[in-house]
Write the structure tokens for this entry.
Amino acid sequence: MTDDEKLTQEQADEKQINEAFQELLDRYLESRHRKKVEIITKAFNFAKQAHKGVRRRSGEPYILHPIAVARIACCEIGLGSTSICSALLHDVVEDTDYTVEDIENLFGPKIAQIVDGLTKISGGIFGDRASAQAENFKKLLLTMNDDIRVILIKIADRLHNMRTLGSMLPSKQYKIAGETLYIYAPLANRLGLNRIKTELEDLSFKYEHPETYQQIHAKLEETQAERDSVFEEFTAPIRAQLDKMGIPYRILARIKSPYSIWNKMQNKHITFEEIYDILAVRIIFTPRNEEEELNDCFNIYVAISKIYKPHPDRLRDWVSHPKANGYQALHVTLMSNKGQWIEVQIRSERMNDVAEQGFAAHWKYKEGGGSEDEGELSKWLKTIKEILDDPQPDALDFLDTIKLNLFASEIFVFTPKGEIKTMPQNCTALDFAFSIHTFLGSHCIGAKVNHKLVPLSHKLQSGDQVEILTSKSQKVQPSWINFATTAKAKAKILSILKRERREYQQQGEDMLHDFLQKEGFEASDENISKLCKLHEVKSAEELNYKIGQKVIVLGDSDRNELKEKPSPTSWKKYISFAFGTNRNKAQEQPAETPAPDIDKKKIVKLTPDAIQKNYIIADCCKPIPGDDVLGYIDDNNRIIIHKRQCPIATQLKTSFGNRLLAVQWETGKALNFPVNVYVKGIDTIGILNQVTEIISQQLNVNIHKLTIESNDGIFEGRIQLYVHDVDDVNTICSKLKKIENLKKVTRIENFDDQISD
């Protein structure tokens, strides 16, 4: 090559490099990130100088690769200036004489840390030195804990390498493609990078199975015109309906990827022609405002369901319940006029960004926009070091273990937002609550695992998505220590119980002294011992504790005991030590057929602690706070709480009047009770959505079970809810009755009760 030719080549390279960088800057300036152009330009100039004269195997200047990686990080993952600089510099330390210290001096510790992480995990994962490569992968996972952007940039680097894999030798192509399909595509999927995951799979498939890939690609091209025609005909009435609604939207055709088609052909043992879901329709809309996003999504669903009949078993609501990796959309399968089922995916622009860019897209929607959130993505990886502490003797076994389950002794559990938590095997929902935050653990009342309500003692499985339900009035219960399995949960529970016990003891001591002073007794050891004996407690501390908890309510029996006038009947003494009495509390309303033997002066208080320890809620009538109730002492000295109008209670009143107790609810809003509601009305589109919207969204009540039946335009529904008291039920019923086509709303005792008009 002559000097003139070299000069011409250098000028051409310079032009190509500058154009590529300018395009990167232009795309960055279009984003909502802060416009830190100066430091990005500085990183570009530094990397350009460091890689000067170096070319890739394809023959192009090497600096074009870091620019391309930075562009993927910016445009396809949604990262900002820190990541763009790190991407531009990611090969400098590995390929040149510059050090991490040099990077830190010029660009600061954060960029240096990311570049250092990328340098440590450079190279392949498989190869001749399998053990060393497995160690490399271990380092890759460790760096995820330090800064999630390391793995995001590494995925961007791998994507560009896959896009330019054609210049590599076939043997290299197979190795890199296999590695990508095995490691990087699943990682991208876990991070919610759906578009990148799909492209990595397709490129891997293209190089691992080139002939099959070409065959499927050719068949997709052959059938393209037919799909276009189906798409236009199918979407025409949908467009017309959406135009009437006035919601800004765009409709796209989603074509199944070659890898997905091939995968389905392999798994289902079918041919290309037998795959019926190659075409799907995607509706992407702009909500009227942030609050209306969910409603707009369902309104669109209702609108298009009027045009085409929906498949009854193929509604997928990932709007209300996002997938573990953050994916949100409403999927419905509709019957076209040509007799073909077509899936329609309904997403807002925000949901679409999250679907394509993963969790990183959330940064764009944070208040103020612009800054990268360092915590959002790294939360679910912060325990990765603990998982990797256990050494694996065989490198490939290590890789399999990591990929499939990250060690058998650990499980992965997802939060409702898709964040991942590493927990010990056999852990419970309660352990999970305390692992998130002590406040969450100490106020939890239950959990929803994979959207199903479970008790706190429920054992979690890997892959479970767990939502902890809390109540401000809930307190740590002593029984929790029996099913907490993690050291953290046990320690927190014991600590809280110890602190609360001290507080209750102090309150109880003050209440006891006030009582003794008011009644004219001394706070002597002798008097305290009498009360301890009366209430069958072992020490003054325990007496104070139970008085403070209001398990013991000081009253007539205590006064009589101190006057050395023991109560005349064992029943009265039993009632006193178990529950206490108070003649001044609110009087119970009489039952329709009152039991004459109930002593109205002795009203047993149904406090949260007492209910959990000493009482059984009758299953026949399922009373809740606010219901008129009575207590029945059975043969085993257990106290059963019945509604007063319960048929069983009526029998008890006539046959066992001497075993009945007057009881009064004092639960506040501390506990949740199951209640069943029956609804009946005219079957119109969207009425179920109206019902669930009022219960779940407006009233923030959890639906435990729901069944709906429709016949001849009339529907009947049964809903099981968890409420605090009768007031909650009345509020729910009152709100539901305002729905225009809902004609009957009533509480029923049992879920399957038959209701007559």
Summary: The domain at 673-748 is CATH 3.30.70.260 (Alpha-Beta Plaits). Residues 392 and 398 are 5 Å apart (CA to CA).
